[in-house]
Design a protein that fits this description.
The structure holds 2 protein chains of 2 kinds.
Chain A (H helix, E strand, L loop, with lengths): L2 E6 L11 E7 L2 E8 L7 H5 L4 H9 L8 H14 L5 H29 L3 H22 L8 E2 L2 E2 L8 H24 L1 H7 L7 H7 L3 H5 L7 H4 L20 H28 L14 E9 L2 E9 L7 E5 L1 H5 L3 H4 L5 H9 L5 H4 L15 H19 L2
Antiparallel strand pairs in A: 1-2, 2-3, 4-5, 6-7, 7-8
Chain B lengths: L3 H6 L4 H22 L9 H11 L10 H27 L8 H9 L1 H12 L3 H32 L4 H11 L2 H4 L1 H17 L11 H4 L9 H26 L7 H23 L6 H25 L2
The chains are: A alpha+beta, B mainly alpha.
Chain lengths: 395, 309
């Protein structure tokens, strides 16, 4: 059968962000996939070299609107690792609480989008409606619905107002009830099962070969989780379990995320219990950042976020490196996509919960004659193209 | 009898079905929105959408085949206009019904799907080609069950005339209430027109998140407006068709006429509910569903009808 190339992107209703997939298809069957990223590079790592240690926290919070506390946690872990600072216990609980609330809202967001990609807009709207109270909780506790900016190296900026805790418990209880209803509805619906079961299977071997992380890996039965493997914040102070599934297909990727939401709700409740007992400072003083290197990790909703900082003893990092989870999860589509139907390709690509603004790296543009094209070259090329089109259409 | 030109353009032709079709569409959008905890657009939004599309710039892609790209929307519109005229003229003036008008009706009802296939393949877009291949497969799967379902009331009446089907139901009451075979046929036809309207779970050819509208991807402006109008009319025409065959027809005396519209609305609402509680299925699943389940159901209905049930 003749092969055709179906482009998904750079602009496509599949996702809000620019990314480019080239699917080679035979009829409805996908035989190969090529991924291009680099449409949205913002040079955050370079910017970090011109900001003070504290300012970088707010810079990395703006890498991604959804993970706006994951990157700061990883960055603060890195700086604290560099300074050998232990943060106060109360700050640990607050970090955990904010991190887990973020996981809840991020997973709910993905669950809704997954419904949308399946053409099930009712699930999309319902789940996003249930996500609203989580954002309200954020607003009450941190002052912002997104971009909470709670962290600084050494602790957290603001203490939480415990008056809100009973209300937060009530809202989370309702969310739990709604989610139980939804998970039952999903697992009982033969149409959804037929769309998800056995589709886009990622085997544990492939997880290891591609280095996949987060729910993508845990859905395949690979039990990796930074929160358990290398505890930070309060993750070793509270009781919780790593949720895993066995099959690695789309259904398990949905199930593992729903299980994680339940686990996160439990953790938030535990953190609130602890915060009502543990009082005290929320900020440790860091006088100076010594020369050296530090690494920090955080289990973001999509998987392990890794930050590396190097200091020469000055007021800002001389090197700051970010590795977002999508960067390692995205290539797994090479293993999951070929052989699947085109109709399934969209949800398979979305099943890793990709976040391109976290992942973007600079793309090298080469015309195969000169090694690199500079900005001037690119502008010149676009002028030539416009001129060509103008001549062609006689305008 | 009425003037044919008046019938075609005003009542019960274009103006009548377009107005009601867009109203039905508005109801669908509002209801879907309420299903999804949204406010939804006002009821008259489809009229505004249509008018806006008609005055917008129409782009024709450079690598499209011009003629084959422009004619299909008109063809689709002409098809549904004629089929709606056949149906509603019969309800107003039963004498205008002619032998075989059910077959002609079904034939013209094919036009919107055929037009999508023609226009999509003429647009020269790979995603449209994908949508076209899906549309063909979907059409092959739902057409036969629909014809089987239509066969049942035709067998009961012993005539392929809409007027006969209606007058028989006026004497005996609605077919679907009296014969189990007709009720089964009604379900088969309901599933088929769900696919014909490309409502989820059968919105496969358009698959917004997969192939971005499929055959419609390159259409814009007034050409897209014509497809929109066709779709709007189908929203009203297809449920009315089912009411005509299975639920007592559209007899033109005051109360029964209004009651028939309410029946058509109820049939339509069932479709909207199905639409909102299902995800989109894959094309191979749709084909398998229609050929292994719905087709068998249609055969059973036909067998029961012949056996006299």
């Amino acid at each position: 059968m003749a092969k055709a190339v179906i482009p998904i992107g750079p602009y496509h209703p599949l996702q809000e962000e620019p990314e480019h997939f080239l699917l080679t298809v035979e009829g409805e069957k996908v035989v190969d996939v090529e991924v291009h990223i680099g449409y949205n590079h913002r040079g955050i790592e370079k910017l970090a070299e011109h900001k003070s240690w504290q300012q970088v926290t707010f810079l990395v919070a703006r890498i991604c609107g959804i993970c706006s506390t994951s990157h700061p946690i990883a960055y603060c872990n890195a700086v604290e690792n560099l300074c050998r600072v232990e943060i106060p216990e109360r700050a640990k609980y607050i970090r955990t609480l904010v991190g887990e609330l973020e996981r809840i809202h991020s997973h709910l967001l993905w669950l809704g989008l997954a419904g949308h990609f399946l053409g099930y807009n009712t699930v999309w709207m319902w789940v996003w409606k249930w996500r609203e109270p989580v954002l309200d909780i954020f607003e009450a506790l941190t002052g912002n619905r997104n971009h909470y900016d709670m962290l600084l190296p050494g602790g957290v900026r603001r203490d939480l107002n415990e008056e809100y805790f009973p209300w937060v418990r009530k809202e989370l209880g309702e969310l739990k009830k709604n989610l139980e209803m939804l998970s039952k509805a999903i697992l009982d619906d033969p149409v959804i099962i037929s769309r998800l079961k056995g589709i886009g299977v990622l085997t544990p071997e492939d997880v290891k070969n591609y280095g996949a992380v987060g729910p993508t890996a845990r859905a395949s039965g690979v039990k990796i989780d930074v929160r358990k493997d290398d505890p930070y914040a309060a993750y070793d102070l509270i009781q919780w379990e790593v949720a895993t599934c066995e099959n690695g297909d789309l259904l398990d990727k949905v199930v593992v995320r729903i299980l994680e939401i339940f686990e996160s709700i439990k953790m938030v409740e535990e953190c609130m219990d602890a915060l009502e007992k543990v009082k005290g400072e929320v900020m440790a003083t860091i006088k100076e950042v010594p020369p050296g290197e530090g690494i920090g990790r955080h289990e973001a909703p999509r998987g392990e976020t890794f930050h590396y900082v190097r200091s020469d003893g000055g007021s800002s990092p001389i090197r700051h490196k970010v590795r977002a989870p999508t960067y390692v999860n995205l290539p797994t589509c090479k293993a999951t996509l070929p052989g699947s139907q085109l109709a399934d390709a969209i949800i398979i690509l979305a099943s890793i919960d990709p976040c391109y603004c976290c992942t973007e790296r600079v793309a090298v543009v080469s015309d195969k004659k000169k090694e690199y094209l500079t900005q001037e070259d690119l502008i010149k090329l676009s002028w030539e193209k416009t001129e060509k089109l103008r001549r062609k259409y006689g305008k | 009898m009425g003037n044919l030109g008046f019938n075609l353009l005003i009542f019960p032709g274009f103006l009548f079905v377009a107005t009601l079709g867009f109203l039905w569409m508005g109801i669908e959008r509002k209801l879907t929105a309420r299903f999804q905890w949204r406010m939804g657009p006002p009821l008259w939004q489809p009229y505004i959408d249509f008018l806006k599309l008609m005055i917008k710039e129409t782009l024709i892609p450079a690598n499209a085949q011009r003629f084959m790209f422009i004619t299909p929307p008109l063809l689709a519109f002409a098809g549904v206009l004629i089929s709606s005229l056949i149906l509603f003229r019969t309800s107003l003036f039963p004498k205008t019904s002619f032998l075989g008008d059910v077959v002609v009706f079904l034939y013209f009802l094919l036009f919107p799907s055929l037009a999508l296939i023609l226009g999509g393949s003429a647009s020269g877009n790979p995603l449209a080609a994908m949508g076209v291949s899906r549309e063909i497969k979907l059409m092959l799967s739902y057409e036969l069950p629909l014809i089987l379902a239509v066969f049942v009331p035709v067998w009961k009446t012993g005539s392929v005339k809409f007027a006969q089907i209606m007058s028989m139901q006026l004497q005996k009451g609605a077919f679907a209430l009296h014969y189990p075979s007709c009720f089964i046929a009604f379900i088969v036809a309901l599933l088929s027109i769900q696919a014909k309207l490309a409502f989820p779970p059968y919105d496969i050819p358009e698959g917004e998140t997969e192939i971005m509208g499929g055959p419609l991807i390159e259409y814009s402006g007034s050409l897209l407006g014509m497809f929109y109008l066709t779709r709007g009319i189908l929203h009203f025409l297809l449920p009315s068709f089912l009411v005509f065959l299975f639920w007592g027809g559209f007899p033109f005396n005051r109360w029964q006429w209004i009651l028939s519209f309410l029946k058509a609305l109820v049939v339509f609402l069932i479709m909207v509910v199905i639409k909102n509680i299902n995800p989109r299925i894959r094309i191979d699943q749709a084909v398998r569903f229609f050929w292994s389940r719905v087709f068998v159901l249609g055969i059973i209905a036909m067998g029961l009808a012949i056996a006299g049930w």
